[in-house]
């Protein structure tokens, strides 16, 4: 049956708004011409709707489409791939909007709209974006309501209200589905990088690198502890160990003869011997920290955790130097669960190759430092005494902790140790490690973060870029790898209470260094808002974005003792079916009931009164029969009963002019009089 | 659908949805099924689900869940919008057989407003109405009249896709309603009437030529408009009908028995032709059919009564 259908005018506004708002997030990412296209399309459509011009013909629309495709190719160099694909989708969405005439076109537009919304979520996953998309979906739904509305005089706000009500009812069901629907493993792997280059740690360490990071207050990662929170001075988040040195820069190095396979242990591979030993030692120790790290995209593979980190996630691996490595770059926020056992470091062994690597120094660098180390070596009778001597040296000599160290000359070690003596953590870590190696103690530099700030709302830890830090680890026979932080010897405040405090103690203030310490500072309302925003952001990440199979199982096993597919299916059935049944039941129940008028209620009241006084009445008793029954049983009430009947009948059956309320009032008074007479 | 199956389906429908004068669409009568767009929408939700799984993006998964939930909510809303709608017989407009008549169906809403309700029946394009709570809404549905007699109302398909167009709720309603098809007039030279002067072809037809003006009486609805005293009405005296004395030629009786030698339907067609002819002349005439006699009279209402009687033959109410 052919039906000529024109898009109703009362829906145009919502259609236009939906198109604009759905595309908006992509316009910020996409090329500029896309915004131009959108404006063009809206203007043409507006003129068409006002009948200033005709709808562009097929030729014009095809030309527009070809131009769009060409521009997409020009901007991205290809027509596939996430960015070009999304740009093409958004353009098609706009072009479809231009040619909407029939109901069918509008439906196609809606479908495109859903996809455009989905792509926004692909690139932005914040809580605000989700609510924005919800608003877009509401608009799209309002469009659907509008185009299915037959009444030409319908008002546009009505559609939005209907759509909002429906979505409000749908959201609880969505939550249930979200919690219960099992997550399937990806069918094929797709990863989308947000493509934004962010500040973060690089895989090398040379003087000045960490201090440049300190100028950023961006969040590096967040940590939620389950149970004990380690004290500030113990929070060393290890990211990399750097073991080769070329005189200026520290780099990662693999001991000779060791394969990467042997170096990294994944969850689903047979563990090498060292890992089994480590695991055994870890099991014996009571002191351990359990926490979940949520990392911001770093576009690197390494992760941050405290020593010695054990994970169960199949995508993560643990390295022989107590680090965590992801299988692929962290291009999106990544959450992972860690159990750290600090004392397990002692169970590690040092192979001769490793010892060799950890003692190697470039030949021509730091002759003075070498002789100083040799002297310490001769004076001391054990390695730990050498370490102590070095720390004393840093503490007692006039070393300064500063964000703006002077440039170092050719020999970075000697120049720092004996001339400038002003440096940031990387200077201290680098020279300390050099000294240790020169003294014959295996040592390496560790780069990562130290400290972090606790969010007062729920106690999760926020680690920012300015918490970046570098320190050393030395191998002491019998104790294994021991962490030594030479910065603590120079500026203990850095370790105890953070960079800001350390700089304050050295006589610098953040403002005159041009630094941004916008962490959770101050108790002002602005600070409070920041704390809460951080809290919401973190919870959004841990509860919603990271809700994967593992967390689903963990959550569900809190409700059901053991999680079986049968139970999940049942729960889904109950949670989805029950509300639907309830609403349906309510609808049916409401249908059965016929609303009583005031007069009918009045009649029923008298009817029940008479029955209470011991007179049995047939269900279909008329007012006349009721009045007669009263007169028969209680002759003295006969007159009142008659009056009541007359008044009732007049009120019910004659179109009596006058105030209905007043009539009802009289009726009620008559009933009250009867109430007293019926004994 | 093959013939026997179709018959079975019809019989099942007739049993399930029996005809009645008034029908309120209850959950027993309402069917509900996704529309084409509904299926497309579900496909979109499924695609988003696959996308969410593949990109390991919980928000896209949520979006697909939201679409699915919205679909479920839409089932309720579509059903709620549709059920509770009442249909009952209205009047009907008769026509000659071979032509078309019309049936009036009145939709009423006791519980809630029903948006975008479409009514259709075979051979007729759909009509879309919305019925506001507590109000009634009349819809005329055209009906072709293939033969003389009572033409029963066909099965009406009532459907609604409101609010989202994802689902279609529909019901078949058979109203116990009919449209009368008058016989098709067939000209004949011989007037099957007696009692008057002329039993042959109709003679002069002046303005009530063979009647004598007697006076005026107050107009009652149904009086022939041609007998209204329009001049007096124009002077502002109100509506009066001119009353004439017995026609000089006496009363004419159209008699079944006088049309002879023709099949039944032909007879009725001839009677119909003369009914119209005499009505045009404004000659009072009566009708005598086996089982029914209508006293002579004239005017629109009388003509209708006579035509309806011819249509109903041989079963009169």
Automatic annotation (TrEMBL), chain A:
Q: Name one Pfam family in it.
A: DUF4129
Source domain of life: Bacteria
**What InterPro entries does the entry give?**
Bact_TGase-like (IPR052901), Papain-like_cys_pep_sf (IPR038765), TgpA-like_C (IPR025403), TgpA_N (IPR021878), Transglutaminase-like (IPR002931)
Q: Which ranges carry the Transglutaminase-like domain?
A: 417-488
Please give the start and end residues of each transmembrane region: 31-48, 60-77, 83-99, 106-124, 130-148, 160-181, 568-589
Q: Which UniProt keywords apply?
A: Membrane, Transmembrane, Transmembrane helix
The protein's name in its UniProt record: Transglutaminase
Species of origin reads Alcanivorax hongdengensis A-11-3
Organism phylogeny = Bacteria, Pseudomonadati, Pseudomonadota, Gammaproteobacteria, Oceanospirillales
């Amino acid at each position: 049956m052919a039906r000529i259908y024109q898009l109703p005018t009362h829906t145009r506004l919502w259609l236009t708004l939906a198109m604009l708002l759905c595309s908006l997030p992509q316009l910020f990412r996409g090329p500029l011409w896309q915004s131009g296209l959108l404006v063009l399309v809206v203007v043409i459509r507006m003129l068409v709707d006002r009948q200033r011009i005709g709808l562009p013909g097929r030729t014009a629309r095809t030309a527009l489409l070809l131009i769009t495709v060409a521009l997409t190719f020009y901007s991205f160099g290809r027509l596939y791939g996430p960015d070009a694909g999304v740009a093409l989708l958004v353009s098609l969405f706009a072009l479809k909007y231009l040619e909407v005439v029939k109901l069918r076109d509008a439906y196609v537009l809606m479908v495109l709209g859903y996809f455009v919304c989905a792509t926004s979520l692909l690139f932005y996953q914040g809580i605000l974006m989700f609510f924005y998309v919800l608003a877009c979906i509401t608009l799209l739904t309002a469009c659907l309501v509008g185009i299915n509305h037959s009444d030409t005089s319908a008002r546009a706000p009505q559609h939005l209200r209907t759509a909002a009500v429906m979505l409000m009812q749908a959201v609880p069901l969505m939550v249930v589905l979200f919690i219960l629907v099992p997550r399937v493993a990806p069918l094929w792997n797709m990863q989308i990088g947000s493509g934004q280059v962010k500040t973060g740690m690089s895989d090398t360490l040379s003087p000045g690198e960490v201090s440049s990071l300190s100028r950023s207050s961006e969040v590096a990662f967040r940590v939620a502890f389950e149970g004990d929170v380690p004290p500030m001075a113990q929070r060393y988040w290890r990211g990399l160990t750097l073991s080769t040195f070329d005189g200026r820069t520290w780099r990662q190095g693999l001991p000779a003869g060791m394969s990467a396979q042997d170096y990294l242990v994944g969850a689903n591979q047979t563990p090498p011997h060292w890992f089994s030993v480590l695991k055994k030692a870890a099991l014996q120790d009571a002191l351990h920290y359990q926490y979940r790290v949520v990392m911001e995209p770093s576009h690197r593979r390494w992760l941050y955790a405290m020593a010695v980190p054990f994970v169960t996630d199949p995508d993560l691996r643990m390295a022989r130097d107590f680090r965590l490595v992801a299988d692929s770059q962290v291009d999106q926020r990544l959450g992972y669960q860690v159990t750290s056992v600090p004392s397990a470091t002692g169970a590690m062994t040092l192979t001769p190759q490793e010892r060799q690597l950890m003692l190697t120094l470039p030949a021509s660098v730091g002759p003075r430092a070498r002789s100083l180390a040799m002297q310490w070596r001769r004076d001391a009778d054990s390695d730990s005494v050498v370490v102590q001597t070095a720390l004393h040296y840093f503490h007692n000599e006039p070393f300064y902790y500063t964000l703006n160290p002077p440039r170092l000359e050719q020999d970075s070690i000697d120049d720092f140790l004996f001339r400038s003596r002003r440096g940031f953590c990387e200077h201290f870590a680098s020279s300390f490690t050099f000294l240790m190696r020169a003294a014959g103690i295996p040592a390496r530099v560790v780069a990562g973060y130290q400290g972090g700030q606790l969010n007062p709302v729920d106690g999760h830890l926020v680690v920012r870029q300015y918490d970046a830090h570098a320190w050393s680890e030395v191998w002491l026979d019998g104790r294994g790898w021991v962490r030594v932080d030479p910065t603590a010897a120079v500026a203990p405040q850095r370790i105890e209470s953070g960079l800001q405090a350390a700089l304050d103690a050295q006589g610098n203030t953040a403002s005159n260094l041009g630094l941004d310490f916008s962490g959770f500072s101050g108790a002002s309302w602005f600070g409070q808002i920041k704390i809460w925003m951080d809290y919401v952001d973190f919870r959004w990440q841990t509860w919603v974005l990271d809700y994967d199979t593992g967390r689903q199982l963990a959550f569900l096993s809190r409700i059901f003792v053991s999680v079986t597919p049968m139970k999940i299916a049942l729960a889904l059935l109950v949670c989805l079916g029950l509300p639907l049944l309830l609403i349906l039941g309510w609808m049916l129940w409401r249908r059965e009931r016929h609303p009583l008028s005031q007069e009918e209620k009045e009649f029923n009241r008298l009817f029940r009164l008479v029955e209470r006084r011991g007179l049995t009445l047939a269900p279909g008793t008329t007012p006349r029969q009721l009045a007669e029954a009263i007169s028969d049983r209680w002759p003295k009430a006969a007159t009142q009963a008659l009056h009541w009947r007359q008044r009732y009948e007049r009120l019910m059956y004659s179109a009596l002019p006058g105030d209905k309320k007043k009539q009802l009032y009289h009726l009620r008074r008559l009933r009250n009089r009867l109430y007293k007479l019926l004994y | 659908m093959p013939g026997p199956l179709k018959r079975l389906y019809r019989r099942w429908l007739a049993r399930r949805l029996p005809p009645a004068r008034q029908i309120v669409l209850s959950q027993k009568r309402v069917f509900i099924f996704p529309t084409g767009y509904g299926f497309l929408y579900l496909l979109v939700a499924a695609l988003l689900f696959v996308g969410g799984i593949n990109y390991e993006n919980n928000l896209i998964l949520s979006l697909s869940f939201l679409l699915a939930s919205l679909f479920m909510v839409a089932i309720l809303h579509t059903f709620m919008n549709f059920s509770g709608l009442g249909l009952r017989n209205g009047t009907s407009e008769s026509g000659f057989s071979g032509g078309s008549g019309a049936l009036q169906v009145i939709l009423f809403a006791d519980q809630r407003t029903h948006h975008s309700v479409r009514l259709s029946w075979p051979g007729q394009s759909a009509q879309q109405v919305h019925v506001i709570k507590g109000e009634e809404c009349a819809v005329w549905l055209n009906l072709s009249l293939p033969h003389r007699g009572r033409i029963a109302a066909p099965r009406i398909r009532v459907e609604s896709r409101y609010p989202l167009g994802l689902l279609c709720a529909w019901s078949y309603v058979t109203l116990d309603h009919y449209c009368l098809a008058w016989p098709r007039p067939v000209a004949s030279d011989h007037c099957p009437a007696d009692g008057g002067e002329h039993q042959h072809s109709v003679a002069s037809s002046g303005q009530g030529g063979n009647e004598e003006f007697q006076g005026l009486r107050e107009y009652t609805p149904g009086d022939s408009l041609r007998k209204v005293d329009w001049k007096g009405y124009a002077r502002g005296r109100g509506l009066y009908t001119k009353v004439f004395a017995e026609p000089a030629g006496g009363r004419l009786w159209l008699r079944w028995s006088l049309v002879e030698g023709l099949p039944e339907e032909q007879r009725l067609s001839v009677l119909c032709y003369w009914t119209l002819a005499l009505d045009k002349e404004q000659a009072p005439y009566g009708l005598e059919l086996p089982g029914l006699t209508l006293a002579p009279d004239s005017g629109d209402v009388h003509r209708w009564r006579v035509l309806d009687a011819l249509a109903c033959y041989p079963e009169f109410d």
